[in-house]
Request: fold
Amino acid sequence: MSTIRKERIQSASQTRRGVGERARKRLSAFAGALLKEWKRLGLPVMDERVVVAVSGGADSVALVLALDELMKDGRLGVEVTVAHLDHGLRGEAGREDARWVEALADSLKFEVAVGHVDVKERAVRMGDNLEQAARRARYEFLAAAAGCGARVVVTGHTMDDQAETVLLRLLRGSGAEGLSGMEAVRVLDATSEILLARPLLGWARRAETEKYCRERDVEFRVDLMNEDESFARVRVRRQLLPLMETFNPRVVESLSRAAELLREDATVLKLAAVELLQRASEEEQAVRTEREASVAGSLSVDVLKGAPVAVRRRALRLWIAEGRGDLRRLELVHLVGVEKLLAGERGGRRAELPGGSFVELRRGRLLFYIK
Amino acid sequence: MSTIRKERIQSASQTRRGVGERARKRLSAFAGALLKEWKRLGLPVMDERVVVAVSGGADSVALVLALDELMKDGRLGVEVTVAHLDHGLRGEAGREDARWVEALADSLKFEVAVGHVDVKERAVRMGDNLEQAARRARYEFLAAAAGCGARVVVTGHTMDDQAETVLLRLLRGSGAEGLSGMEAVRVLDATSEILLARPLLGWARRAETEKYCRERDVEFRVDLMNEDESFARVRVRRQLLPLMETFNPRVVESLSRAAELLREDATVLKLAAVELLQRASEEEQAVRTEREASVAGSLSVDVLKGAPVAVRRRALRLWIAEGRGDLRRLELVHLVGVEKLLAGERGGRRAELPGGSFVELRRGRLLFYIK
Reply:
């Protein structure tokens, strides 16, 4: 379990001292750009607490320093909690980072929440891989840190992170949803009302965050895991993107732009899928009387057949997610199996899904059997 | 201008001799896969002439050899015209390739059409770049070769070509339409009813076409321009894809799959855009009386505003293409300019388009002024 210590609560209106303190004539370009995006995303500007996830790397440190600049300049009046999770993967180096982030928050007079978890142990216990376990632990920790009344958690993900995400998904063969990359604002998790916002994602390059830290005379931490080329993301950053930049020096911006366009597409197609699902479910009441307890839902084959494949596939995906509770281990091949039922191809009236549930074709409807 | 010589017309039902002649017990894997895709795409199987574009490289040679195998085996009964265009860019090497393709067609008893153009001269004359001029010359030549009654032109583009195309578009920052890559079947050009089909695109790897040529004891030609790394496509093939394969050995298949998914998405979104355009144009009759001759069309701002951005942007793109006759030099920035009119942002009621036409906001409608 993570342990959280809260330290030093101080309202944003109080005077600050410490790192980067000096009277500024005008806003830095970095803080100005952050403020613009902050407002565009509708993030809180007054009298609200905001949790900022800070690893100690240049991106999140630049984010917290720019928030400090904006608050000192009177442009923002929020209350900041700096949240740092030590994943327990790097021993003393991890503990040092935690102490460093605490000292930084201290110098900025921000509240700080530091958590320590053993991600390896959690991975084994939950049957997750290390990356999944780390993500889960992080989200739990951030939700807990926000628990004391914060509506928004912000992270320092940059446009470079976005480009890396898009390429990693492309390497895996994702469709529009995957290639959309990260969203600038979304809910932290399905059960939560806390928003996760990434106000650097749409515009900031990693080099700019480093430059801004230097301007503020803050030496950010360097995570050696960011240099370990056994991680695909690190190789994307250090090998693939540099090669792509020899084709187009602005490829990071291009990838980010492509992700944005595809995200807009995905939004429309998801809406169309939800509508299709409603239409295809309509007669369900009629068949419900005769249906077994193990049938989680049924859809009209005729309605589905009349829809374009891009919408139908998304509708089936949503339907299966609803029926099973999640999309774990659901691959394109399973969806294609269900689509084959619609086509009435030889070789069966049943499509198996991972985990024992299945979809069966009966009297013009697809029936979803849960295990 | 291209010159076309037609040689040797022989119906598909006559006996053949020459390259690859031997009694086959069963269909090769390559020809079998081609036949399956050929039928899936609804390409002609009997008594029709098909033009096959053959450069002399492994891909197009494998295609024509596999068609030969399918015809000898009685699986296809089409009539084949082998079409080869010498672009005039490689001097004697280009003429040698042309002679080689003629000899190949001869040995297979296929009709052959060879064209010679001076692409450089055409590029200068038409104000195109070399790539555009080459593409234009190729399409004209293929249309002419098909002129004698062929409904379909087939090319030897493989899944590797598709992956390269997707990456080149990604490097440029394309949205779904660009990332959809090449279509397996489309019309040859906007004014034509001739279909351009790529029956290797969805499944064949370049290595398979080379292997099949070797199995048939045919030494395909190697175009030295395919090794010239000053071409972005060559560098994608020789540097970028090999690096991506170190992440995922099946990345070519993944890219091809992503392109297919995005193409399905783009189909739905284009349809939605066409519908939106119709709705937004509906009241146009009412305003037509008062409109000037230079107004090519008008759209309701309210209708456009109610649509999601992904659909609206496509609708505006279609609208501008209709008004101007083409999309030349139209960039995303111009569309964004038109969208800003909708948002009613300060700074103008007019969005300029390249070439002197513009869109103006007036009394709740967007008016398209052509130059």
The interface with chain A takes residues 170-176, 179, 232, 235-236, 239-240, 243-244, 246-248, 251, 253-255, 257-258, 261-262, 264-269, 271-272, 308-311, 313, 332 of chain B (CB under 8 Å). The radius of gyration of chain B is 24 Å.
